[in-house]
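Homework help board

Subject: predicted structure for assignment chain

Our instructor gave us this sequence and asked us to write out the predicted structure in token form, then describe one feature. I got the tokens but I'm not sure how to describe them. Can anyone check?
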Amino acid sequence: MRISHQMLHQNSMNHVSQNMSRLNKAYNDASTGKQIHKPSDDPHGVSQAMQLKSAISANGQYERNTSEANLVLDETDQTINSMVNVMQRVRELSVQGNNGTLNDEDRNIIATEVEELTEQLRQFANTQVNGNYLFNGTDTKNAPYANKNSHETADFTDVKLKTFTIADGLTLEVGVKAGELFGQGEAGLFAKLTEAAQNLRTGEKVSLDKIDAGVDQMLQKSAEVGARKNRVEAVENRISGSTLELKQMLSKIEDIDIAEAITKLKSEESLYQASLAASAKIIQPTLMDFLR
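My token output:
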């Protein structure tokens, strides 16, 4: 077969083009730190990477949900502990008020403090987190006890707790209903505290059992909140570990070895330079080259 200058020229340009393409890929790999730039580079790898990114994205949402759930649980626990402290002070005052040696003025002073503590308890019941009421379930924009006498008519029968999806297929109720903490109507804690203040003023005995029952109810709910918090934290730790593993797997598919990438880049650069030099020698001379 006859080899013409045109064939030599065409083959030379093809080789230069191929070497330039490999050099360009090596440059992109080294500059981006990634070995996949388009689906055709590694179709199977792209498919795996998409699945991993989807799982990482889902875990990111679960982590945000667990963080919000933890916030609600932390605030709930702290507020209930503050309520318990208020109730313990009420009990101390009740014991003091049950002392038969006190005069009417002393008993009135104690009753006034009990009333102030009752109002403080109502304010704790209306605690807000990020503008949302903590103890009114999903109805976060309305206070459970909007005014001083709200406990007389408050009804929490249909109140539902907020739920958070903290893992695939795992939804957890978070928070405590005001009705579960204080009860309702005449049997509720606020009614009992009002009765205690009245008894102090009239010289009657204050029922310590009723106050103790209120404290026990709060402690029980605090324990439930703590158990839920432990569960959320366990799930949060598992999600964090899973996310780390998924990112490591994704890195193995997409990322490159920098040292290897730079070595390959220098090698492809040398090949490209060599192909340019070889092509310059075999390109057909012009008429001016013959006339020199």
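Reply (TA_rk): Your tokens look well-formed. For the description, you could write something like this. The two ends are 32 Å apart (CA to CA). That's the kind of observation they're looking for.
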